[in-house]
Amino acid sequence: MKILSIMLVFLIFITISCAENKKQKSEIQKESRTTEKSPTELTQYTEERELMVKNQIIRRGVEDKLVLEAMKKVPRHKFVLDKYESQAYEDTALPIDENQTISQPYIVALMTELINLKGGEKVLEIGTGSGYQAAVLAEIAEEVYTIEIIDALAKKAEKLLMEMGYENIKVKSGDGYKGWPEYAPFDAVIVTAAPDHVPQPLVDQLKEGGRLVIPVGERFQELKLLVKTKEGIKEENVLPVRFVPMTGEAQEKGK
To answer: What are the residue numbers of the active site?
Structure first.
């Protein structure tokens, strides 16, 4: 009887210990979620990133703490051509492969702030490029879906993002004009190439309350913010910009 009592106490102790360990593991995983989604805590160019955020982004009025932290974490020099690495944190857009460009850091931060992420969202990006904007989004959002019409760019960006540990980014090679209906609706959509009109499929794939940030125009472009409400679409012009044109169906529709 005594032996049975001892065994019972032992089993209760083991059960409690396992439960505590499971709870602790869950809490650790929850606390480390940001670290898992932010695999880019690199010391190289840390000071340059800090100065970029302070001098180029905060001074122009971007205030969202999540956006500022994301911009400090993502190593922009990984997303530019090797010959431009020393210029990666300068206040300018830079050439990437296939005659495309990586946007100016301020514009990346501004567009990210405009979609008002809080964490946990599902975001669609049209125009992956080298993957920099997607990486910034992935530091905040739960899921990022990004489409690139140039196959070589899509494959290169996907490889880089995977190597950097971004498991919450899904890359697709194709025309982004019609969005990605399989994963719709989205909390937000960011477009990093300029059509001459707002693609209706992207609006349709927004959730109610969702936000679409898109440059619109040909020679003269305007960055627009569209918010989907019960009453319809609210649209505002943010500022003049200069993006590469959106190709594919966007150009056909614009003719």
So the answer is: 103
Token pair belonging to 100? 């495309």
Q: Looking at domain 39-254, does it have CATH number 3.60.40.10?
A: no
What is the C-alpha to C-alpha distance for residues 38 and 63, in angstroms, rounded to an integer? 20
The helix or strand, by DSSP H or E, that contains position 154, with its residue range, turns out to be: helix 151-163
- Cis-peptide, bond into residue 199, ω within 30° of zero: no
Please write the tens of the pLDDT for every residue from 229-251.
999 999 999 999 999 999 999 98
Q: How far is CA 157 from CA 133, 160, 174, in A?
A: 11, 5, 14
Residues 194-214 have pLDDT tens digits of 999 999 999 999 999 999 999
* CA pair distance 137, 108, nearest whole angstrom: 9
CB neighbour class for 173 (10 Å; exposed up to 12, middle 13-18, buried from 19) = middle
Strand, coil or helix: what is 216?
A: strand
Q: Residue 243 corresponds to which tokens in the numbers above?
A: 């993006």
Tokens of 178: 């019609």
Give the DSSP letter string of 95-113. E-GGG-EEPPHHHHHHHHH
Residue-range domain boundaries for the chain: 39-254
Torsion angle, alpha carbons of 157, 169, 151, 156, to 10: 20
